[in-house]
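Open question from group meeting: does this chain pack into something compact, or does most of it stay loose? Before anyone orders reagents, we agreed to write out a predicted structure and look at it together. Recording both the input and the output here so the notebook holds the full record.
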Amino acid sequence: MKTEEELWSLLREAYSMPFGSAQIALVERVIQHADAEDYDELRFAARMQATNAYVHGGEPAKSFVTFSWCRAEYDEHPERHDRADEHLLLWHFKYMVSGMTKFPQVPLQRTYDVLDDMEGRFRAGGHSLHAVYQYRWVVAEHIGDPAAEEWFEKWSAAPRDDNSDCVGCDPTSKVEHLAARARDEEAVALAGPVLGGRLTCVEQPQSILTELLWPYLRTGRLDEAADAHRRAYRRLRANLADLSSIADHIAFCAVTGNESRGLEILERHLGWLSTPPSPYAEMWFAASAARLLQRLDGVSVRRGSAEVPAAELAAEFAATARELAARFDARNGTGAVGARIERRLADPPLVGHLPLGAADSRRRPAVTRPSRVPAPLPVEPDALLAHAETMLRLLRTDEAKAAWQAFDERFPEPAPALAARRLDGKALVLAGDEESAAAEATFRAAAAAYRAAGIEVPALVAEVRAAALNAHDEERATPAIGVIEALTERMLEIADAEMRAAAILRLANAYTRAGRLDDALVHLDRATMEAPDEPLLRAEIAARRAHCLLMLERYDESAHEAGEARRRYAQFDDPPIAAMGCIVQGHALANLDRFDPATEAFTEAVRLSEDRAIKLSALIGRARTRRAAGDPLGAVGDFGEAVAVHVAAGEDSAAAMLRYELSAAHRAAGQLLDAAEAGESAVDTFDRLGSQDSADRARYLLASIYRELGEHDRAVTLLQLIASNLDGFDNLPGRAQMLEEAGQAQYETDRDAQAAQSFAAAADAYRAADLAFDELRARRWQAISLRWADEPDPALAALAEADTLATTLEGDEPALVWEKAMLAYDGVRVLIGANRAPEALDRIAGVADTFRGIEAFGEALQTDLLHGELLLRLERAGAAEPMLRSVLGAAPHDSQLRENAVWLLSEALEMLGRSDEAEELRRENGL
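Structure tokens returned:
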């Protein structure tokens, strides 16, 4: 059993936790123990905190019980409670009124009784009725009572006081009132000052931004609407209590042409319907989901492990929403809720398509090259087949197929040699479509047909092509290449120069597929020497040499050879195959840090290619090149377009990989909201696909983004999850790093006790991994965190452990010298917190000089300042004065260090009886 003080400590810990099931579980644990031991003050405090936790953590029904208990306790034992208890109890009345409207099983009269009790207490305490009028409006608006307008006017006219909703939430409800009546300009005007001010409430700005979605859309403020959706949903998405607001964002996607985005949100939150925060939230989510799914006919929706047709799910959700609405209307005695649901189910589209950012999941309009007018088809059958083969080599696949179709129509019964050649063409198309088995069989049939017609060299070529289909398979590559080598030697004996060069090229290609790059390059060089000046063959050899040189990391040669291939392909009116040479050249140049020409090469590949895979490769190459060149905004556009292509094709894994890179690009561009959105989508997809390593890598990036956004709780949650996933001896360094970074995020937000726990766990993991230097750093952070957590004895114990560890580390590396000096500095602060100033003074001696010895001048100044402060604590103002003057002289202008030095120096002067100098010092420095 916990002691009372330990339970109070747990309650304080719960207060600092994020809203959700973990906080609720901890508060309930405190209640259980407090009840068992009859700790009256704690029982009340824990239930008051539980009410807040239930409301904001998605379990509001439980808050009715804790509120009723606290209200009865407050009335029965007023002598136990102060003004703070009264204020919090009055605040909770608002939660009750709002919450009771959302449960149709709660009689309406009970809500009115709570309202009357609330008003009576407000009047008895001399409080403004501002909040009372607001929550009478809440009930009237919910049931469709015309009196809502009257309560709105009274609420707006009453003076605010400490019981009023905050400066963000109060206008949010007013915006809701105005938007429901299509008074959109008034709603937007009312919200302006709120969004322009400083909001500290946990419900803002996401709540007011959500209420503004429809006013923004209806008044044509489309950029504001898109921004409001993105900013608000990102803050709502982690909290079950916000399910109703999340529903609004699903509906927003439905009416703005963002069905794919809406489906992504819907699938992410479908599981929440198993434990919705309230029937009202379930109803509103169901109606919004139904509206979205009505626009997705023919699509399947992931629900758990099943795929459900969108139309079927739309009907199910619409029925659920209507059934729940009927229960509310029966309770309320009006038809207002049902009418509201019908309006949501029939929300008309307001925008054809509203772009929501670079990661927009709709396919962007493709940038296409001007239409090419095909050349007239040859008349003679052999020329027609030769034309088809050339078009295929140029990747003008449609023109090749058109030529073959014309051949089939004109020459239904060709001569045996032509029939064999036509069969060869069919095999080439099958190979291009990656139908390897069928292609191999057809090539072998073509070889037999050639031999039956007495034509040996083309038969050998067909056999090479059949064998080459196996060259990329690890198990079959060696025998396949053996066959190709033998067939090539035979061709070299009987073929002409062009056919010999082509045969050597095919052998080199087989070596490349098998990963034998050096052999491939030898034969490509041989093909170059053998080939006559036939433009297309020369272009193909140059392109293959460029690719092989790229894989061998011979970037200069690769870039040159790719340029040669591009030059030769230009003679054929820049065919689509030239895009491959552009991509190779782009990668080679990018590896040489020649980013501008690399970008140009990738851009040309995007323009030339008609093949989806090649275009994607070019887009991704250009995105990475732009990012490396310091153009993250350009990279964002390319990554976003590539994501859109994969999403449209249902290629979730590839889309998630690119969303990870998109997130990093957004972050580099300073677009942190977009970075978070892309990162979150990547994590969701990786988790769903079971790709834990990729998910954790994305979580780590996302944690950094959250810290930059000031969302430290989310960062800590992710880092702790990664640490738990890295459970195992081989992963100890990574686990320790995640725990240490979690501690840093907690420390930055003054969660010092929690930070100390994270640092201690990190230090233990570093120790197990035999990383003493890293353990020293984590122990130091543990000690200083405990100092700020006002736990002096544990802080001293951690400091002692760190000091002992430091003695085992020897060397003069700047990093180690710095770390030991920081340990001395932080140790001084720990000793000061433990009221051991004389020991602290001994410890600080020489630390500033150590910092200066490694040119850590900022740390040296901070140490001198702390030294001066310590001397003042020991009433040695005379010794403190020159040290503080030295800091003041060296501190940067307008820095916090300088301001602190001024205050401490003025204090020293006061202690020395030189008040006039102290006052003049403060005046000169504007303090």
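Observations to bring back to the group:
Residues 358-369 have pLDDT under 50 and may be disordered.
The two ends are 52 Å apart (CA to CA).
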